[in-house]
UniProtKB/TrEMBL annotation:
Transmembrane region(s): none
Name listed for the protein in its UniProt record: Importin N-terminal domain-containing protein
Biological process per Gene Ontology, one example term: protein import into nucleus
Localization terms from the record: Nucleus
Domain Importin N-terminal positions: 26-98
Protein family according to the UniProt entry: Belongs to the importin beta family.
InterPro entries linked to this entry: ARM-like (IPR011989), ARM-type_fold (IPR016024), Importin-beta_N (IPR001494), TPR_IPO7/11-like (IPR058669)
PROSITE patterns: IMPORTIN_B_NT
An example Gene Ontology CC term for this record: cytosol
UniProt keyword list: Nucleus, Transport
Lineage top rank: taxon: Eukaryota
Length: 968
């Protein structure tokens, strides 16, 4: 074993360690090596070596895959060399006999990622070699071949999926050229394993080797998946190739056989992995048919077997519909029932697209044509004729509509359970467009398409159904009535003008709502929904009033929550109509808003709250000034919903509502209030209890509005200068520091500068003992330290962060050292963290130009030296260099010491108008240690310390000479 391989195995072993520090060190080393020659080839060698620990092999495969994603392209930074790429490619197909399924899956993904980039230019024989490997495996013992076939087909499936998604026309053309050949090879293997698995499934018993059967079933599913990709994205005209036509013909027979095997497994109570694998194959067939119809509707319809496939699905939909009705009536649902919903859902999708694609008026397929030529238009017309004559017959249309309404649009047992267990969640899910994943929702969409296409034929049937459900005698008739009313609501566009809706409301629906039996809440919800669907149509004012009264009746507190929410949604629809007459709703506005606000107080989920607020917003929009009497109550309720943990989407909705209530002037209200508050504080000659009582509000504002952060911080600054003892009590400083700690790491440079300035002002104003515990407990200094070392901010913000630690060093340098040590422990940072921090601090110092900040940093460094910390003393040469840089700037022209520049003082206060605060800030600045400390004297004092002077004498003679010159 080569030395690099041994080293890499060792580091990968460390990377799998449960010890966090060892793992991080190993990851850092792997990142350092990733640009080394042959690094990824060595990873592949480890990945393929069965003598290596399994976890190490798995990790090496992950690093290899990630490296290919990052470095395989020629345009990547530090790309993998061509020689190493070639070596990796040559070994990729030698992994098919690996026993570990997980590792071969990793290898298949790796091959597919490389194929997407290298095929066919740099890897022209990839697919040819995969086919050759399949043929070689087929010649082996069948009991051994299936394992290799499984690995090869899994790889082929991944490769085809990647190649089929290439967008450039050249890539699509290449894929189309190779698709027929690969399809033929896969089809040969498919036929062999279909025959074997069906025989085994028909003879299954407890003694059978299920592991081998499961692998063979997986091979069948993978074959179907491969052929789906080839037929959908590769073979352009599936009706022109014998292989694809034949496959569609036999696949329908095989689908029926596997469906029969599934029923047999259920009958003998064989419900484990074998049943799941059979169901997976059935779903793969469905996925193939659905995808083929979407991509090539004309070509698919021209295949002789296509209509047989559609009919087979429809026959099962009719048969299984009776089982679904039995489940609804019995109130039970068995997970191991014969009803297989994914299979039925795929059938629904096929029928939906068949109806949608074929126009009954034009008689031709109106979907994606193969080309715009006359020949292809004729093919589209022919395909449409075949479907209309062979499937979408008048008898089918009638039976399909009745089947959908009477069997598939019924509320299920699971619907009732979810309604009872989570009414808000169930209500919110009704608005989600999930027809591709739920059988009932898909059935509703199929019904809408069917009614739209065959309106004249189906409207009389719908009117008959409405009359049939006039009387409810039991649960079954109640569910059927709910389904019929559902159909009436979904078909509003087709039924409008055919159904005499106003008498239907007055004489039928209103009377049905008088039944208060709790079991009838299903019908009460449906009526509220139905009225919401129809209320936007051309309805008389009298009927609209009845509908509004009905909504209000269904929103009262004694109604079920789902019924109330549905009625609220209907009320919103009633006022949101473009033909809305405000006089219709004004008489009900008071009770309507009271009921909506009561509902808003009651709901708990944020999604439901958003919906109810949207209903209120719609009503406010349409009623305008008529809402003024309710504005105060609405505002108070919305304020109670606002808090620091309110979801952003809900906050936006609340702001929209505030906007609608308070008019456009609301935008300036908060900003104007803050300006007024700040002006009062600046002008106040002294503190007062009333002013201090508002301080908690200022601290709370830090939770919400980033736009007004600057003004909020200015207000807090004014409080600090006005009454530092009251403002910086431990309870207040802990709140302030904690809030700022949470913001500093997520803010921009300017905002960080504002926050650090407030902290600096606080540090100047009261003794360190008052706030040191709050500083540590809040994690504020740790947050500032993290910002300083992560190099994600620049300029003025960095200077302010440095100033903060320098400021603390003036008062107690040991606190700075303790915080740095604590941060290293909390962040689990290895190595000499203090040394790294000092290096960064010294490095950044050269970017500081303001004299005040330079002197502050210089004093801070000097006080750190006075602690005698060995790490700090090791930086003495650099710190002495800072002394010689800052010191001369403080010398006046006549050589006397300038303790502080008055220009810097003016820079802080010149923007403030003449006020009491200007005097307070001026006094505070002159008490600032940076102003009062004699830097030259501090340096002399420092060098007089015995342990420091000893080290100082060992510093470079040039620096020593500069320091002596400064001190003299």
């Amino acid at each position: 074993m080569s030395e690099p391989k041994v080293q890499l195995i060792g580091v990968l072993g460390e990377a799998t360690s449960q010890d966090y520090s060892r793992m991080k060190q190993a990851e850092a080393l792997l990142k350092e090596w990733e640009n080394s020659p042959s690094f990824f080839a060595t990873l592949q060698d480890i990945f393929y070596d069965r003598t290596v620990d399994y976890n190490i092999r798995t990790l090496s495969g992950i690093y290899l895959k990630n490296g290919i994603d990052r470095f395989w392209r020629r345009t990547a930074k530090n790309p993998i060399l061509p020689e190493e790429k070639k070596a990796i490619r040559e070994r990729l197909l030698q992994f098919m006999e690996e026993p570990s399924k997980k590792l071969t899956t990793q290898n298949a993904v790796i091959i597919s990622r490389i194929a997407r980039l290298d095929y066919p230019r740099d890897w022209p024989d990839l697919l040819t070699n995969l086919i050759r490997l399949m043929d070689t495996a087929s010649a082996q013992d069948p009991n051994e071949a299936h394992s290799i076939h499984s690995r090869i087909l899994e790889t082929l499936s991944e490769v085809l999926s990647e190649l089929s998604t290439r967008l450039l026309s050249s890539g699509r053309q290449q894929f189309a050229q190779i698709s027929p050949t690969i399809f033929q090879a896969v089809a040969q293997i498919y036929v062999v394993y279909v025959d074997r698995t069906i025989i085994h499934l028909q003879q299954i018993n407890g003694n059978m080797n299920q592991e081998g059967l499961l692998e063979e079933l997986n091979i069948v599913a993978t074959c179907v998946k491969c052929m789906r990709v080839l037929m959908v994205s590769g073979v352009r005209d599936v009706h022109k190739y014998d292989e694809t036509r034949t496959f569609l013909q036999v696949s329908r027979k095989h689908l029926e056989q596997y469906s029969g095997c599934r029923c047999g497994l259920i009958q003998i109570n064989h419900l484990g992995h074998v049943k799941q694998s059979v169901e997976n194959i059935i779903e793969e067939y469905g996925s193939l048919y659905v995808a083929l119809q979407k991509r090539h509707p004309v070509s698919a319809a021209l295949c002789p077997a296509w209509l047989d496939i559609i009919r087979y699905y429809w026959q099962n939909i009719m048969i299984e519909g009776s089982h679904i009705v039995e489940q609804c009536n019995s109130g039970t649902q068995d997970e191991n029932t014969v009803v297989f919903e994914p299979f039925l859902l795929q059938g629904m999708l096929l029928i939906k697209d068949t109806i949608k694609n074929v126009s009954s008026n034009a008689g031709q397929l109106g979907a994606d044509l193969l080309s715009a030529t006359d020949e292809e238009k004729e093919l589209a017309t022919e395909a449409g004729r075949l479907i209309n004559e062979g499937f979408l017959t008048p008898d089918f249309v009638n039976i399909c509509a009745e089947t959908l309404v009477s069997q598939y649009m019924l509320m299920s047992h699971s619907d009732f359970n979810r309604w009872e267990e989570d009414p808000e969640g169930w209500f919110n899910n009704l608005d989600i467009e999930n027809w591709e994943f739920e059988l009932k929702a898909c059935a509703e969409l199929v019904f809408m398409n069917l009614l739209s296409q065959y309106r004249d034929q189906l409207v009389p049937i719908m009117l008959t159904l409405v009359e049939r459900v006039a009387t409810v005698t039991d649960k079954q008739s109640l569910l059927f009535k709910d389904a019929v009313y559902n159909a009436v609501g979904l078909g509003v566009n087709s039924l409008f003008g055919k159904l005499d809706f106003e008498p239907f409301v007055m004489n039928r629906l209103v009377a049905e709502l008088e039944n208060k039996n709790p079991n009838f809440k299903v019908l009460r919800r449906r009526i509220a929904w139905l009225l919401g669907r129809w209320v936007t149509e051309s309805i008389s004012a009298d009927c609209r009033k009845v509908i509004c009264e009905t909504f209000l009746q269904l929103m009262t507190a004694d109604e079920d929550l789902v019924v109330r929410l549905t009625a609220a949604s209907g009320l919103k629809q009633a006022v949101d109509d473009w033909d809305f007459d405000i006089s219709t709703v004004v008489p009900y506005l008071g009770s309507g808003m009271s009921l909506l606000l009561a509902l808003l107080k009651e709901v708990e989920e944020s999604d439901t709250t958003l919906k109810v607020i949207s209903y209120i917003n719609a009503i406010i929009d349409r009623t305008g000034a008529d809402m003024i009497p309710f504005a105060a109550e609405i505002v108070q309720l919305l304020i109670s919903l606002w808090g620091p943990h309110t979801e952003p989407l809900l906050q936006s909705s609340l702001v929209v509502t505030f906007t609608k209530i308070t008019s456009e002037a609301h935008i300036y209200l908060l900003e104007d209030s803050l300006d007024l508050w700040w002006t009062i504080l600046q002008s106040a000659p002294a503190s007062s209890p009333d002013l201090i009582s508002l301080l908690p509000t200022a601290l709370d504002l830090l939770d919400y509005d980033t736009e007004n952060l600057r003004k909020t911080l200015l207000i807090i600054d004014s409080y600090i200068m006005l009454d530092p003892q009251a403002t910086l009590q431990p309870a207040n400083t802990l709140v302030l520091f904690t809030k700022l700690a949470s913001k500093i790491g997520q803010s921009r440079e300017q905002a960080i500068s504002y926050m650090v300035h407030t902290l600096d002002l606080a540090l100047q104003s009261v003794p360190l003992q008052m706030y040191v515990e709050s500083l540590v407990q809040s994690g504020l200094l740790t947050s500032v330290l993290r910002v300083l070392v992560e190099n994600e901010i620049f300029g003025f913000a960095i200077m302010n962060c440095m100033n903060l630690f320098a400021r603390i060093s003036i008062y107690d340098a040991s606190v700075v050292l303790q915080v740095i040590q604590l941060t290293a422990q909390q962040e689990q940072i290895s190595g000499d963290f203090l040394n790294n921090i000092l290096d960064k601090w010294i490095e950044k110092f050269e970017n500081v130009s303001q004299e005040r900040a330079r002197k502050l940093a210089c004093i801070g460094f000097t006080n750190l030296v006075l602690t005698g910390n060995p790490v700090v003393l090791s930086k003495l040469p650099s710190i002495m260099d800072i002394w010689t840089s800052v010191g001369p700037d403080l010398k006046s022209s006549d050589g006397s010491d300038v303790l502080y520049s008055e220009i810097d003082l003016e820079g802080d206060i010149y923007e403030i108008d003449a006020s009491a605060e200007k005097s307070r800030k001026h006094d505070l600045s002159h008490r600032d240690p940076v102003y009062t400390i004699d830097l030259i004297q501090l340096i002399r004092q420092t060098l007089n310390e015995p342990n420091i002077s000893t080290i100082a004498n060992q510093v470079d003679a040039t620096i020593l000479e500069k320091v002596k010159k400064l001190l003299n």
